[in-house]
Write a sequence for this structure.
């Protein structure tokens, strides 16, 4: 080998691969015997190379010789990684004579005395123009003898750095795969339902064993012997089979929808056959499976690669599929390259372990995303539960206060209502008794009068019962507003015609002042009940020949419906507290009309559901006015949430914005209402019992007519617990406009709503 043109002070380590002079069957031991080889004709053999590929006998001895040509003496270092047999390496020059650089096993001419063992050799020497390298190998154990890798030659310092890098590489990958195996094993112990961390831990452990055995990290743990050498090789092959098995199990666990389960046994069968052969056959037989095993690993990776690509086309698994696709592509390329390296007998590069390291990190990311998704789901559920508890606590507190007030008023309410019901019932009972007397004691005219009074009392009772039923249903949420456009003027006109019949017996004049065009937004049925309560109360508490005035005007983006009477009015205390929850007052009208005392309470509930306000003004003996202010803005916002507490919270936050706020509790009913009214913005909660907010938006935007409606998704979590993807990404992909966490400050919600409504 001519090194006269090289700068030996900066000679980078390079393999001494190529053709060497070889002397099969020769095993010189002394300097004279080595010099005697110069008198014998050599053969030309390749290093590295198996003996069987060079027409040498399977068992025997070969001495290789390489002459170095240098211009001047220089310190060099030679490194021999491994050989398939026992070996010795020498160098010879005129200055030092014959010097042993290193050896492994026992080189001998007989099969019984020759002991082979994998061992690395690295030593420096001073190269001179007469330096010759000798490599002796004896092979009596393996069917394939010869150098496994070519020797490395280089400048001493650079070669030492090269060897340090190799050791650090082995230590790094050994530590990395040990950490991955242990951490994911503990992850599986913590959460046994998901077996993907277990298969991944065993996959990393199998590669860890391969590093220990293939890289001979464990070579200093035992005394060199043929038995341990053969055991390490057998375990190395088993570790490679383990990599195949646990890779398959991992892919079937992670991608069950894209890897048909029927292929699981089919793909596993060849691996178990290979394991059986490795466990039961001699070295010379099972090592012939290496080509098949490498090729089958490529088949497995191609199978996983195709499944991973398929998964990237599905929204729920595109991210996981992308990571697995990339990792599989890397390890597939590394496996093919590793196979080429092995069969060409090159030095295995860093890319082999690095490729598997990248592959392992991609799989670890997949597991981490799955577990992050699990923890995110748990955090999401915990946060939702906490919010629910907070809202339920507030609601329970309100209910408790309400129950206490109700308890205080219950006796009073029962006594008043029972008295008011008992009196007409007693009168009706008396009339029935008089009419059933024989002979009758009443004249026909008197009987007619008594029956008229009884009929009036019965109507009062029915009216009271109807009021109680309506209020009770509304209190128990049995009635939910059905929002739509309605004509305020039309509803009011119809009710005034009906109330005129009540006003005639008292000679009460009903005066109206109403806008011609008065289109409002709300539930017309509930609004009708509200106006009817206000009108009947006004007539009930107005004296004979009094007046009831009804005005309907638009003021400051609100419809104002005011009912004013000249009746008996209310005390100041009643006026101040009449709209408070739990407040009760029951009194008869000016013509002894009865009521249940829940009319204004019902009106207050209807107003609250519509975001309206009731204003009550009254003065004793002068009259009362009740005004309802119903929003009439151009912008409409729908709040869809099954939690009434959160709906009220959003309504409270947005109360100062010029928009009509409309609440919905059920997604299907909301879709029905949206199709009728088409709001400008929908604020939808992600977590609902019937369907998620994402499902609602998907149904909404499937209708082309709804594409212009803007939407804001709110949730306690930033990710979808069903898919693990970001909710903001899903909303935008569906055609929505924004996402907001429920933990965000109120000002953030107001800011987003203003932006989406162009306010």
């Amino acid at each position: 080998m001519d090194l006269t043109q090289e700068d030996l002070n900066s000679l980078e380590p390079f393999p001494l691969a190529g053709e060497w002079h070889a002397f099969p069957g020769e095993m010189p031991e002394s300097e004279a015997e080595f010099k005697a080889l110069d008198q014998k004709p050599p053969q030309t053999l390749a290093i590295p190379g198996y003996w069987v590929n060079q027409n040498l006998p399977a068992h025997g001895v070969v001495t290789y010789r390489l002459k170095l040509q240098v211009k001047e003496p220089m310190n060099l270092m030679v490194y021999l990684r491994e050989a398939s047999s026992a070996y010795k390496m020498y160098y010879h020059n005129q200055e030092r004579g014959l010097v042993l650089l290193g050896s492994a096993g026992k080189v001998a001419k007989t099969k019984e005395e020759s002991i082979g063992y994998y061992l690395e050799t690295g030593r420096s020497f001073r190269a001179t123009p007469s330096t010759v390298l000798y490599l002796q190998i004896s092979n009596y154990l393996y069917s394939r003898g010869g150098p496994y890798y070519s020797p490395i030659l280089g400048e001493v310092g650079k070669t030492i750095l090269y060897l340090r890098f190799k050791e650090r590489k082995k230590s790094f990958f050994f530590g990395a795969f040990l950490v991955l195996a242990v951490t994911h094993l503990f992850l599986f112990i913590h959460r046994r339902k998901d077996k993907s961390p277990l298969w991944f831990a065993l996959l990393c452990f199998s590669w860890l064993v391969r590093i220990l055995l293939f890289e001979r990290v464990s070579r200093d743990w035992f005394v060199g012997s043929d038995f341990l050498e053969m055991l390490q090789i057998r375990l190395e092959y088993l570790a490679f089979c383990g990599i195949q098995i646990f890779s398959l199990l991992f892919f079937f666990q992670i991608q069950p929808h894209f890897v048909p389960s029927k292929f699981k046994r089919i793909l596993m069968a060849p691996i178990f056959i290979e394991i059986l052969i490795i466990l039961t056959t001699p070295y010379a037989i099972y090592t012939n499976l290496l080509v098949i095993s490498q090729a089958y690993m490529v088949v497995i990776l191609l199978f996983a690669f195709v499944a991973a690509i398929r998964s990237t086309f599905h929204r729920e698994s595109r991210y996981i599929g992308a990571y697995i696709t990339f990792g599989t592509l890397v390890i597939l390329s590394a496996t093919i390259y590793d196979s080429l390296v092995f069969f060409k007998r090159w030095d295995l590069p860093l890319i082999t372990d690095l490729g598997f390291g990248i592959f392992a990190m991609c799989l670890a990311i997949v597991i981490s995303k799955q577990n992050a998704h699990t923890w995110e789901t748990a955090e999401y559920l915990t946060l939702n539960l906490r919010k629910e508890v907070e809202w339920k606590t507030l609601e329970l507190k309100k209910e408790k206060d309400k129950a206490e007030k109700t308890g205080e008023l219950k006796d009073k309410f029962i006594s008043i209502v029972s008295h008011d019901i008992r009196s007409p019932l007693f009168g009706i009972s008396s009339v029935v008794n008089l009419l059933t007397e024989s002979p009758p004691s009443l004249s026909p005219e008197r009987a007619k009068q008594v029956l008229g009074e009884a009929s009036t009392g019965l109507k009062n009772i029915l009216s009271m019962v109807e009021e109680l039923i309506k209020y009770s249903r509304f209190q128990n949420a049995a009635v939910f507003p059905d929002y739509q456009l309605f004509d305020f003027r039309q509803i009011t006109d119809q009710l005034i015609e009906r109330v005129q019949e009540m006003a005639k017996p008292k000679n009460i004049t009903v005066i109206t002042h109403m806008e011609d065009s008065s289109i409002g937004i709300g539930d017309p049925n509930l609004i009708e009940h509200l106006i009817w309560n206000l009108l009947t109360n006004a007539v009930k508490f107005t004296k004979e020949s009094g007046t009831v005035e009804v005005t309907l005007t638009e003021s400051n983006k609100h419809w104002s419906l005011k009912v004013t009477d000249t009746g008996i009015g209310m005390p100041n205390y009643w006026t101040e507290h009449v709209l408070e929850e739990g407040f009760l007052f029951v009194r008869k009208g000016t013509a002894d009309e009865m009521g249940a005392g829940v009319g204004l309470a019902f009106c207050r509930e209807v107003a609250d559901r519509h975001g309206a306000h009731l204003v009550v003004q009254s003065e004793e003996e002068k009259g009362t006015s009740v005004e309802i202010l119903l929003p009439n803005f151009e912008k409409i916002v729908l709040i869809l949430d099954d939690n009434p507490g959160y709906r009220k919270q959003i309504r409270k936050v947005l109360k100062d914005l010029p928009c009509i706020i409309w609440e919905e509790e059920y997604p299907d009913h909301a879709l029905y209402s949206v199709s009728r009214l088409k709001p400008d913005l929908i604020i939808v909660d992600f977590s609902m019992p019937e369907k998620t907010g994402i499902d609602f938006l998907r149904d909404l935007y499937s209708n082309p007519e709804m594409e212009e409606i803007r939407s804001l998704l709110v949730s306690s979590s930033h990710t979808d617990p069903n898919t693990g993807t970001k909710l903001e990404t899903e909303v935008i992909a569906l055609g929505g406009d924004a996402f907001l966490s429920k933990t965000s400050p109120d000002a953030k919600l107001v800011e987003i709503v203003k932006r989406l409504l162009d306010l």
Summary: DSSP finds 19 helices and 22 strands in the chain. The CA atoms of residues 653 and 746 lie 7 Å apart. The first helix runs from residue 31 to 36.
